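Your task:
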Amino acid sequence: MPEHFVNDQIVESVADVVTLNCGEAPSQSAAMLDVVMAETIGMSMYNAVSRQQSSSMVGSAAVTSACAKMLQTPFPILPPPLPYVVPPSGLQPLPVPPGGLTDAEMIAVAGVDAGAAIDVLAAEAQGSDVTSATAVLQALAKQINAALAALTPAPAPSPAPAPAPSPAQAKRSRPTARPSRTTK
C-alpha cells in the first residue's frame, strides 16, 4: 500500500465532521440570535423600569419641595377686632313693622330709609344736635308706616262654609262593614 493514500475511514470521518459543522451552523446562528434578542429585550425592560422609578422619585421630590415651601410661608397675623362702639344714648332704634314684608314693601321701606339716612347725614354735616337727628328719625318712622299702610292690601274675606252633603252622598261615603272571619 502506498503511503500517499489516506484511509477511507479517516476521509469519511472528516467528511462527516465537515457535514456536521455545515448542518449545525444555521441552528447555532439562530440560537445566538435568540440569545442576543433576549438580552436586548431584558435590558430595554430594565431601562424602562429604571426610568419610571427615576421619574417617580423626581415627582416625589417636587411634591416634597412644594409642601416644604408652603409650610415655611408665614401666616398673616390679623389685627384684633375693633371694639364695639355704643351709639349715643339720645337715638332710638327704628320701629320694626309687624309681620313679614313682601318684596315691594321692602323696596319701598329701603327707599324711605335711604332718604332718611341722607337727611341725617345732612343734619350731622350742619352740626345739628341729637334732638334734631331724633326728630328726623321720627319723621322717617311716620313715612315708613304710611308707605306700609299704602302697600298693605285689605284682608281677604273669609270663605263661605261648605254646603252639607245630601243624604245620597252621605250614604255613598259611609264605609261598609265587612264580616270578620275567625279561624280556629
Remarks:
- Residues 86 and 163 are 62 Å apart (CA to CA).
- The chain has a mean pLDDT of 76.
- DSSP finds four helices and no strands in the chain.
